[in-house]
């Protein structure tokens, strides 16, 4: 591949990542729906039962990942209730600014809605662990996704991004939000 094209692609990706982590105000409305669907893995021969009682785990929740503390997280545990996936990077100022409020939100919704942090974008294992410790985020799952597999699965382009799933596992929102907007959207699903 031509080095100029590679350099242009790297610069474009870096610009998008930095712009997403700016201190600019969040958009007031939902972004337009994506033309594509969420990337999912192949369905198992017999779907795993969901803990919510419907008998089947939604396709969006058929994945596992490793947490920042090295444990296995099975997304099927989120089935049957609304869930928030918070995509963050350890170096992101906005993510740092919202971390305590996300922790408080998770405590408020305990038992009613799931909240999962998804770290990535080159954060690195040590920085992820420090971020979780600094903001006391160890009370709910924090996925270590530097490879970006969960980010790709939900078509997340940058950090400080939320994917909200309704109780059936359908994507109810995908995009940046203020914490107040996030709370309003989750309240609407309860």
TrEMBL record:
Keywords: Signal. Residues 54-190 form the Thioredoxin domain. Residues 1-19 form the signal peptide. Residues 35-45 have a biased composition (Low complexity). Pfam families: AhpC-TSA (PF00578). SUPFAM superfamilies: Thioredoxin-like. PROSITE patterns: PROKAR_LIPOPROTEIN, THIOREDOXIN_2. Residues 23-59 are annotated as: Disordered. One of its GO terms (molecular function) is oxidoreductase activity. PANTHER family: THIOL:DISULFIDE INTERCHANGE PROTEIN DSBE, THIOREDOXIN-LIKE PROTEIN HI_1115. This is Thioredoxin domain-containing protein. The lineage of its organism: Bacteria, Bacillati, Actinomycetota, Actinomycetes, Micromonosporales.
């Amino acid at each position: 591949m031509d080095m100029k094209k590679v350099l242009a692609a790297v610069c474009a990706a870096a610009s998008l990542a930095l712009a997403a982590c700016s201190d600019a105000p969040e958009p007031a409305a939902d972004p337009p729906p994506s033309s594509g669907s969420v990337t999912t893995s192949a369905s198992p021969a017999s779907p795993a039962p969901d803990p919510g009682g419907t008998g089947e785990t939604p396709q969006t929740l058929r994945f596992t990942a490793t947490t920042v503390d090295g444990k296995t997280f099975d997304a099927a545990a989120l089935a049957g209730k609304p869930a928030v996936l918070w995509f963050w990077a350890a170096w992101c100022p906005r993510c740092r600014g919202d971390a305590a409020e996300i922790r408080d939100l998770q405590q408020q919704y305990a038992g009613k809605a799931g909240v999962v942090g998804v770290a990535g974008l080159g954060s690195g294992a040590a920085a992820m662990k420090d971020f979780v410790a600094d903001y006391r985020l160890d009370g709910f799952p924090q996925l270590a996704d530097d490879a970006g597999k969960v980010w790709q699965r939900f078509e997340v382009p940058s950090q400080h991004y939320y994917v909200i799933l309704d109780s059936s596992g359908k994507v109810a929102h995908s995009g940046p939000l203020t914490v107040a907007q996030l709370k309003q959207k989750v309240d609407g699903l309860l």
